Acetamidase/formamidase family protein (Paenibacillus aestuarii), 1228 residues
Amino acid sequence: MIHQFIPQHYFNTIGNHSAVLMIQDRDTVITTTVDARGWDNNGDSAATRGNPMTGPFYVEGAMPGDTLAVRFESITPNRDWAWTTNMLAPSVIDPNVSVTLSASDIVRWTVDVEQGVAFLEDPSPSLAGLKLPLRPFLGCFGVAPTNGQCISTATSGQYGGNMDYKGLVAGTTVYFPVSVEGGLFYLGDGHALQGDGEIIGTGLEISMDVRFTVSVQKGKTISWPRGETDTHWFCIGNARPLEQALQHATTEMFRLLQEDIGLSSVEASLLLGQAVEYEIANMFNPAYTVVCKLSKSFLSTVARIDQ
Amino acid sequence: MIHQFIPQHYFNTIGNHSAVLMIQDRDTVITTTVDARGWDNNGDSAATRGNPMTGPFYVEGAMPGDTLAVRFESITPNRDWAWTTNMLAPSVIDPNVSVTLSASDIVRWTVDVEQGVAFLEDPSPSLAGLKLPLRPFLGCFGVAPTNGQCISTATSGQYGGNMDYKGLVAGTTVYFPVSVEGGLFYLGDGHALQGDGEIIGTGLEISMDVRFTVSVQKGKTISWPRGETDTHWFCIGNARPLEQALQHATTEMFRLLQEDIGLSSVEASLLLGQAVEYEIANMFNPAYTVVCKLSKSFLSTVARIDQ
Amino acid sequence: MIHQFIPQHYFNTIGNHSAVLMIQDRDTVITTTVDARGWDNNGDSAATRGNPMTGPFYVEGAMPGDTLAVRFESITPNRDWAWTTNMLAPSVIDPNVSVTLSASDIVRWTVDVEQGVAFLEDPSPSLAGLKLPLRPFLGCFGVAPTNGQCISTATSGQYGGNMDYKGLVAGTTVYFPVSVEGGLFYLGDGHALQGDGEIIGTGLEISMDVRFTVSVQKGKTISWPRGETDTHWFCIGNARPLEQALQHATTEMFRLLQEDIGLSSVEASLLLGQAVEYEIANMFNPAYTVVCKLSKSFLSTVARIDQ
Amino acid sequence: MIHQFIPQHYFNTIGNHSAVLMIQDRDTVITTTVDARGWDNNGDSAATRGNPMTGPFYVEGAMPGDTLAVRFESITPNRDWAWTTNMLAPSVIDPNVSVTLSASDIVRWTVDVEQGVAFLEDPSPSLAGLKLPLRPFLGCFGVAPTNGQCISTATSGQYGGNMDYKGLVAGTTVYFPVSVEGGLFYLGDGHALQGDGEIIGTGLEISMDVRFTVSVQKGKTISWPRGETDTHWFCIGNARPLEQALQHATTEMFRLLQEDIGLSSVEASLLLGQAVEYEIANMFNPAYTVVCKLSKSFLSTVARIDQ
């Protein structure tokens, strides 16, 4: 079934809030998200700033210990401008380098969805020729966390949240560990594009039209968000410091190779050691995000012994 | 001028050792390196283990405050096997996951330079089909550090060293800050290929034939190694923790954009924020390595105001 | 007014739960806490494990932007035994050192409140003579956090929480930033004693009788918990990595010296540089805790210029 | 034998330099050190800035694998003034707090050795009453490192170096792992006093008269510097990040309790968990320093099973 859902209110925390819609396994939802400051497709303030979330969506049958898969069919900017900050974050620069934000800290960009590019609305001469290709994704989404917690959309954890990973574009399927009945899926914080690490603290912040389909993997238990594209499997770790985020992501991939693919720890190590790829998704939020990736082309050569 | 240089001895530290060869600006050197344990092209032990270095090469005219550019024309395995360890390093995995190395900690791989692939010599059934594409590079190279220091080839710093960055393949030019007369360039620790992060502590360790050309940039001062490929500019940061390595690399790129390209700090931030790429080169050595990259395609759109 | 409060239920999160008691500014509460696994003074399971909290107490007049002061008049073990784990946490030991917990991971200690000592119930010969002096404190307490969050009592933040700081004994006054009406004060997780860092993951875990008095400082805004003993002022930082916890604590002390004492940033630096003391409170929980202290003996020599 | 040694030159690296004096096991040396910028007892510039070292002293019989014990009998300022910086280091403060050093970055203090106090030479009114008790120690000392390395006195490692631990006062014995014949002991960087963490980047920097006695522990192998006072045993870890420094120090203490005292890993954990103390020695240098301490009063209760 396909649901058209128009949000009436938004949440700035991810947790055990009342669901806005009950959906079935395999259902599709078409909805919208406002930007990180709550501005909608008309540029109107529709929600309180700080990554307001559309949702939560209750998925029938999803129970603690299951995995919720969310496939994004489309993530499309629904207005023609975005905003960013204009200065590197202190967390990505040597401590003795000054990176004070100017008073007017928001810069506007034109977003041309048809041409697939973005450029500054009012560039300085040096940046007048800069056109960047769009790569729209959602910066913040996930499911209700464990223990009845209700956590700010500024941060992230095993439940997802504000991961700001630029690889989470349309065509990607993301898997979350379910901690409460119905999973309670939230989404928002669209970016028209972003560099690695979200190093100025924002992508091109924008409101979105989103279409996604859920499915429940009964009895499948994972510890951290996983994902799949046409070319790669990946696992996401969210934590500070950056090492710990990388450790979580690598550990989840290590488990995937052992539990799902049937490799031994030595086999998984030999494969990962020479074939692993990492992406630094964000080094700005309270929890940093690292993604551990493995090409399907290598995985396809790995035979399960029991096959 | 082209020098054919056959190493007679090797160093396990990078510092103010006596030069093995004096060369001129623009000279080319053709030489060899032994592997990380000192095994040469015949598999004989030619040097003490721990990244023994070929060199140092004294480059006439290179003085403290200058930059030494080294362009690698070729880096080619000169034997048909390599070795790796077989278990993830504790630094990349959650602390509660056991990753004890087995007693026999070395695994041998066949390296087929003609076919451009590597595979396990004695694979388990699961990995029997695994073939990985070669991407030969040098794990450890650099110039003498500041203050007359002499530092183990286990680690790295502003002078280069054991960075284990898989992007340093043939065709790349690397730039080092010169700290002593002649620069004193060392090289070694060849890897036939490696994943991001060197997460099992080794790439495919192998001896190499190497050809490189030096040039001195008089009066050009940089703080961290920089590099250039056909498609990207990059800057390398070496430190623990991983955040600090990233901060050094980003700061060096921030400087490059301001000092070499003429951008303001706001312009550099706007560009990097949406276009930066990071690679995690190693998260195994005493100093971790992060690479901050920027596509030349974006840089080419950026006009210098004074042009 | 003095309230005798007997808990009927407990919370494993700190957040906007319904208050169990409304109290006035300057009121005193006499109550009890169960231990970290929910075992009460009789050793019965009274609550779900994971630092179950007594409270929350709603303090009339406390509003966001105010500071809530809590003075602990007494914290007294109300049973004669405690428990600990028996192995160093992986977070405090080199990654290559094995610290696997044994199957039976709980060790019982006798707690003799009259003699003021604790000793192992069933010691090995080597530890048969070990008697440790009691120093009872609460490991976890604080007020509701910002933004309607509801956060597990496993961790901590600007609102307090699971700080496990052994200095928070009777006689100490702790100050919290108020984020919701009434502040909503929670307390629990008593320790009969503990070393620095909570490096085996527990203190001597025990249930407690507690007496405390609240007071509201209207219009006084702080960012991190502060505290006061007879001899010291202190500020608490909670974060990972350990550096960040130290930075939060130091920054709060830096602010205290400037805003409350009237020092300039140079004067505060000169004083702190030579007189600051740090304690590592916990290096086990999701957020580590560092305490920045300054002796009142030095502060008393510092004249406010305007005095 | 007692040697009076007057330094003629100084080193800014610790490594395999030619010894300035050969001494025997159990010999005592009376000598002097200049301050961190090379200023001597007369305030004259006697050496290049950056912690110039007196030494190295070659101790007959000290061989790799042994331990060198150095007992400091006296460490006494030999002039009446010291200097400090005047602003918190960026490494100890939140990244968004400005801590720019003023142009004139050196502040002078009067050091009154007879009265045992220090005070600012030219205080602002607020600090006019500040008198701090002297606690003289050496910030930087140690032995030649492994592998023929020669390392800047800015940093530290397993060989000692720039640890800036305020506990290393007269009366303390420090133990170092010997890596080269003769050990090669260096010393310098005196501080008349200092707070925890060396958080403004200096103690009260001053030249010193020093008297110390060496002894060689044949066949005794340690991994990190250890030390002993009248009241405590301690182990020192030097690394970044701060967690890693703490891990090294704790691991060395864990080994000490097992190898020297004969405890099992569980016994050592039970003892350390409730009795350990930490000090943050420096959070300013390239390697941070954490000290893990254990009171001799607890150790004295621990019987060796085999006694």
